[in-house]
Amino acid sequence: MFNCHAQTDLEVQEAISSISSEPDLIDAVCKIRKQFRIKENSLYYPLYYTREANRENAQFDDLWNCILHSAKRTWFRDKGAHTKLLHILRTIKRNPYPPNRYNGYGPGCIFSCLWGFDRTLSLFLRDNPGYGSGYTQPESHAWTNLNYFAACITKDDPENPWGNWVYCIEAMRAVLEDDMNDDEPHQRSRPGTAIQRYNSLVPAAAVWVLVLGKTLYEKKQDLTPVIGAKRPNYAFGGKLYHGPSGFNKERWTLWKKRFGEISQMGGLNDETRDLAREAFNEMEQNERPAVGSRYLLRPRKTKPSDSDQ
């Protein structure tokens, strides 16, 4: 049943061998995998959106797809580019309510709450390594870039009582709260080895720490659903965490410990270990603000790979 991905895996490898630009390669892989992305010939690019938004049948999904796919193809170290995407969302939130637009949720809701954006983001985050994506380098980088932007959105709206915070827990739980083992043949739609999973998932977890920093350290919130609640417990813990669902110092301590362990693991690529080390050091600095703490792990002196340029 899972062999149905063999053809797309082959097409992805052919794209990797023929496309040198990583943003263009991410575009190609997303199309091959049939992931959530910008629709072909979409009318709802930002250039046209001002004209289209007041139409009664205006659709916002294409605009959200455009912004999120742009984030996915933008290297997370390019803070300026991600800031520009974030500025687009801020600008949309400040727009007046479209006078010709009708819905049953009251004036001001369409733009001020970024109507439908959270749902679109959740769909993009379903294309994670092992499921909607494979474990190739461009797919791992795209996953890291997308999580970086999700973290930026979360930092920009820290009072959101639920929203994007749960995606932080999901990114951490996937790699820090479980022991990594090679997948069984039918365990996931795209099984991977423990090394592949570490290399794909650790960077995406690390960027949440790098973006949120002290805000994440100070966050304390119980996200356990109340008895009778209809929503699932999205903030549950993995096998290595047995505390309450949500954010607390016990969970923070486990995450930091795991980043430290992963930074010393053999078999992982340099990028994975370096980002784990960077996240560990960031967490140490948030606990002990003194510069030059003896607890910090010494950074590796390596040149960035071509894909990081």
UniProtKB/TrEMBL annotation:
Pfam family, one: DUF3632
Top-rank lineage group of the source organism: Eukaryota
Region (Disordered): 282-309
Xref: PANTHER family: NUCLEAR PORE COMPLEX PROTEIN NUP85, NUCLEAR PORE COMPLEX PROTEIN NUP85-RELATED
Name of the featured protein: Uncharacterized protein
Organism the protein comes from: Lentithecium fluviatile CBS 122367
